[in-house]
Amino acid sequence: MSLIEIAEAGVREPRTRGLRIALVVNPIAGGGHGSRAAETLAEALAAAGHACIPHETRRGLDRAWLDDALRDSDLAVVVGGDGAVRMVAEPAARAGVPIWQSPLGTENLFAREFGMGRGAATLLAALARGRLARIDLGRAAGEPFLLMASVGYDAEVVHDLAAHRAGAISHLSYVAPMLRRLRAHVPPRLAVVADGARLDDGGRGFVVVANSRQYAMRMNPAMDATMDDGLLDVVWFPSSGLADLFGWMLRCEFGHQFDDGRARSVRAAAVSISADEPFLYQLDGDPPWARAVGEPTRSLEIVIEPSRLDVLRGA
């Protein structure tokens, strides 16, 4: 029986040996130690009776190699950060294969949401419990995302970092892009329409479209977002400049953003964002794949696809 069949059947003693595991590895994750971390994990899984087949992530839009990698697999283990998880999510959904993140990125928001740890012991314990979650998949301009899409200062920083990075990154890698974007930042004037109703106030600001409550540095703008309700949490923050930006960041850090009545939040299945001036957007902490880094747009359509992906739960 596959993990999904076991979960659906309610088997009391889940299968903990003999699984076929696709190990999808970002080799530069974890400060360039992704490959070694994957080898250590594979050795422990093999010792527990599982067959692991490693696959290194590849650049480019072609994801056919992932469809091949996940075919006939029982589980996809992603050794890397949230960007690598996003890469694997849609092929895993097509293949009906649950996923697990062995976190090696800078934030690892997906792993945080589901209590996933880096070591083999955490994964083996999760396999012994056999608890799966079926979650929604977001889609922005046709591209999948798991955690969030956003337009504003954070998207500008993400694109700046991508334009200047040369390899593995850490939290310190964000300092220079944040400072550069602060000097140039002008909040965009956006029209945000959620399920046909206008959300913005007609002024400048930024918007987060969340499928998860998790966000970088725990500044969670959509604290009540869940990944299995079939809806996106859309939060509009009016902002005229840096003072407003810093104010919203501070409020989000302490969970007080909605104490200020200017912030607006709704749940919706479809979101349209448009502007007369071009804007950048980010997906799960990365620029979109189908656009060049720094390439803006004037419109963005976002939808949710309910119950698309199975996830092996951690603690």
What radius of gyration results from the CA coordinates? 20 Å
Shape: globular
- Give the mean pLDDT: 92
| SSE order, one letter for each helix or strand | HEHHEHEHEHHEEEHHEEEEHEEEE
Number of strand elements = 15
Distance, first to last CA: 23 Å
Relative strand content: 25-35%
Helix content range of the residues, please?
25-40%
State the major sheet.
Answer: 6 strands, antiparallel
Spatial ordering of strands, largest sheet? 6-5-15-13-8-9
Structural class: alpha+beta
> Can you tell me the residue ranges where pLDDT is under 50 for at least 5 consecutive residues?
none
Number of helices: 10
What does this structure look like?
By secondary structure, this protein is of the alpha+beta class. 31% of the residues lie in helices and 29% in strands. The protein is built from 10 helices and 15 strands. It has helices at 3-9, 29-32, 34-47, 64-70, 82-95, 109-114, 120-129, 153-164, 175-184, 242-254; strands at residues 20-25, 51-56, 75-80, 99-103, 132-140, 143-145, 148-151, 191-194, 197-198, 205-210, 232-238, 264-268, 270-279, 281-283, 297-312. The strands form 3 sheets. A 6-stranded antiparallel β-sheet has the order 6-5-15-13-8-9, sandwiched between helices. Strands 12-11-10-7-14 form a 5-stranded antiparallel β-sheet, covered by helices on one side. The chain has a 4-stranded parallel β-sheet with strand order 2-1-3-4, with helices on both faces.
Keywords:
315 residues; single chain; alpha+beta; globular
Which helices and strands occur, and which strands form pairs?
Layout (H helix, E strand, L loop, with lengths): L2 H7 L10 E6 L3 H4 L1 H14 L3 E6 L7 H7 L4 E6 L1 H14 L3 E5 L5 H6 L5 H10 L2 E9 L2 E3 L2 E4 L1 H12 L10 H10 L6 E4 L2 E2 L6 E6 L21 E7 L3 H13 L9 E5 L1 E10 L1 E3 L13 E16 L3
Parallel strand pairs: 1-2, 1-3, 3-4
Antiparallel strand pairs: 5-6, 5-15, 7-10, 7-14, 8-9, 8-13, 10-11, 11-12, 13-15
